[in-house]
Each structure stands twice: as C-alpha cells, then as structure tokens.
Specification:
18-stranded parallel sheet, 3 helices, mainly beta
Length: about 230
Amino acid sequence: LLEAVDGVYNIGTAEELNTLAFMLRNNVNNENFKVKLTNDIDYTAYKNGSMSAIGVTEKLPFRGEFDGQNHTVTVDLESYSTRFGFFGTIVGKVHNLKLAGKITATNRNQIGSFCGLLKGNDNQIYNCISAVEIVDAQSGDGTIGGIAAVTYDATTIKNCAFYGKINAPSRDGNGGIVGWANSGASTTIENCLVVADISWNGGVDFGRNNPSVINTFKTTASDETLANGEMTY
C-alpha cells in the first residue's frame, strides 16, 4: 500500500494511482485522504471502472483533498456504476488537475468527466480542466455533465473549463458542466467555460435544475473572442 509522508500521499505513477483506488474501495472507516500528484500520469491501461475509478461509489467515495499540482491524468475508463467518472463520488476538494482521454458509458447513465457525484456542503472542484471525451451510445435520460454528472448540497465548481467532447447523440437531460444539480441554486458554477464538441439529443449549456451560474460562458474553439483575448479579459 501507499504510505503517507507527513500526512500526504504523493502519487507519481499509474500503479500508485490504482493503489489509491484500491485503498478507497476498502476505506470502510471513512478516513480522509490528502493526495498530491507529482507527475503527469497515463492511466489508460486501467480501464475497468470498478477497479480503477477513485472513490468508485457513494458509499465508498473519495474523501479529503486531491491536489493535481497542475498535472494531467489521461484515462480510458469504462463506467462501472451510475454516477461515474474519474472519481465516482467526491466528498471533499479536487483542484489544480487536468483530465484527458475518454470515458465510455456501458449500460449506465450519469457520467461526468471528473465525477459522477459531488456532494457535501463546501465541497468543491476548482482550478481544473477536462479534455475528456464522454461516449454514450444509449438513449433516454443521460444526465451527463462535462465536469460532474450530479451535485448534492452546497457544492461549488469554480474556475474550471470543459474542453472535451460529449458524444451521446441519443441522450437527453445533460449539461455542459453539471448534468443535474439536485439542490438547485445551492450548487454554484462560477468562472467556468465550456468550449466543447457536444453531440446530444437534449441538454443545457451549464447545469440542469437551476444551479447558481456566475460569470460562466459557453463558446466554440473557433470563437473570435478566444482568439483575440476578449473572453479571457
């Protein structure tokens, strides 16, 4: 198992990241983890969502703080459960992390690139970028979110961008940032940007069920405001 140094788990390889996933599947005492990435990680060899996602279920979530330290994790995951993502469920803070690669929905809905579920008051995803392609060939309600599929309680997604793809042409009920904000305006989407290639049967720019949306925009990669700096300004 990984050993914490001064209370921090430093992770720099795909094997270490998968060991973290294993530890969280066995975190029956609901311990908090403080994690820092020390390298970019190619995690594409670990495809099985039940064994590879971080905090794979709501009962065994990722609890604590995950600091990507501006590193990129590249994934090629197949969903294990409803409410699936690189993190299954986050009960804590995830920041300074970039995700790339692909997540494929297999007989499940509610897929988010960062997480299937973000829950708990004052828990956040911030300073993060997703360049993940979410692929879902099924029909009906998808509740796909570019960052998070579902949020509960007073959660915040801040200073994040979704530069990926949503390839779900028969799915309804999706969002560019959040698929479904269960607590409505208690979820805050702030200072975020959607610049994604989106194919779905129905969805909204940012989040369903009326989350609080502050200074958040949707555009395209060819938008002149990106090229001339207006959007950043």
